[in-house]
Amino acid sequence: MSEDERARLIKVENLERYSRNVDTVVKVVSKTEPRRVTSRRDLSTHKVCEALVGDETGSIYLVLWDDDIDDINEGQILEIKNAYIKIFRGSMQLNLGREGVYETLEEAPFEEVKTENNLSSKVFERDRGYRRPFRGRSKRRY
Prior knowledge:
Layout lengths: L2 H6 L13 E10 L3 E4 L6 E10 L4 E7 L1 H5 L5 E12 L2 E5 L5 E5 L37
Parallel strand pairs: 4-6
Antiparallel strand pairs: 1-3, 1-5, 2-3, 3-4, 5-6, 5-7
């Protein structure tokens, strides 16, 4: 990883509501049991779980879907690129979405994960003034 890439990395404690284009390096502390959910869009069934991830400044839940659940394990170091923060049921979550990617690393640039500063445990009131930016649709249906 080059110096420029390292300078772009965001520490967990600096994540904010609605952060976009998040590049960070985190360690997986734990994972919840996967549960099945049904998509409202096409009624397909998916597996979803949360992984508590963090660095030396704090921790947050990373949402994992389908194949990513089996690919990511406790103790792994992940370099995450182009992720975003979402508020779900009042709590912050780190999401990969369609554009985000991750890569496993051999070692972390930090020693321990600071789980006491869990950003997902902070409760946010619903922000009625915020409107998510319109991104359009890939295909228009008439």
